[in-house]
Amino acid sequence: MKNLKDKVAVITGAGSGIGRALAQAFAAEGCHIALVDINEAGLRETQQQLAGQGVRTSIHVGSVADRERMAALPAEVEQTHGAIHLVFNNAGVTVNKSFEDHTMGDFDFVLGINLYGVLYGCHYFLPYLKKQGEGHIINTSSMAGFLGFPNQSAYSLTKAAVKAFSETLRVELAYYNIGVTSIHPGAIRTNILNAALAKSGDDEDTRKMAALVDRFGRSPEHLARKVLKAVKANRMRVLVGPDAYLFEFFKRLFPVWIHVPFRIAFAKAMQQKQLD
After folding, report:
1. What fold is seen in the domain 8-275?
2. Catalytic: which of 155, 175, 176, 245?
3. Residue 269, pLDDT score
4. Which residues fall within 8 angstroms of residue 75, CB to CB, at 6 or more apart?
């Protein structure tokens, strides 16, 4: 979709982080933006930041894990904007603890937003994209879609599923002139780890990870610029950050060996916890 002016983009997780940066980047190209998030205050802040760009914006409060809310959302957006051309299934969460320490409630929480939120977004918005004769779906996966990380079993599960699902959709929806792109960020400076503190088994480990991401991660704005180019070029996927490129490369080159350092590091961490 090379011409984005006056197109309508729906962005979930738009109350902060990547979603907000995507809204800013696509609004700058002339897209009208429907902002979706469970955090109304964050949505209003994003909307204020888009003021003055000459595009229409609307806010839609709700959880992407809520099937009924997502089923009603497309008609609500179309009524406000008149059409829907792009859908960003971006909302995401994580829980930083081992699989053994995960509860089924943790899995319900992460899968509900990271996986079912993507499924609902694609399923319920697809008929509205088809009506336009062109469209684009952008699903946020992760470098965790390429390999599983310790203490991230639920997150890795959902991001690998989003990657495979997006590849299937890309083949099927090309017939309708609808592109599909999956985003695979490495460390991005967002609030996802800080938000995970309440559900994580070891707050100190989560804080250390968050500090590393804040120090070495790429900005959401950098990601948004790369996604903008990928949508215009109708690319199947876009990797963001040197860590994403490195992990993807080494996973292809050493599909088994790459997991050995993680296994050693996890074993050392477990031994240290037992000593403590």
Report:
1. Rossmann fold (3.40.50)
2. 155
3. 81
4. none
- 183 has pLDDT over 90: yes
Backbone angles phi, psi at 60, to 5 degrees: -135, 105
For 127-182, the pLDDT digits (tens) are 999 999 999 999 999 999 999 999 999 999 999 999 999 999 999 999 999 999 99
155 is catalytic: yes
Pick from 49, 47, 25, 52: which is nearest to 36 by CA? Answer: 47
Query: What is the average pLDDT across 90-100?
Result: 93
* pTM strictly above 0.90: yes
Compute the mean pLDDT over every residue in the chain, rounded to the nearest whole number: 92
Residue 239 neighbours by CB under 8 Å, 6+ apart: 143, 184, 185, 186, 245, 248
* 223 in Cβ contact with 19 (< 8 Å): no
The alpha-carbon radius of gyration of the chain (Å, integer) is 19
User: What's the gap between Cα 15 and its chain centre?
Assistant: 13
Query: Percent of the chain beyond pLDDT 70?
Result: 93
- Domain-wise residue ranges, the chain: 8-275
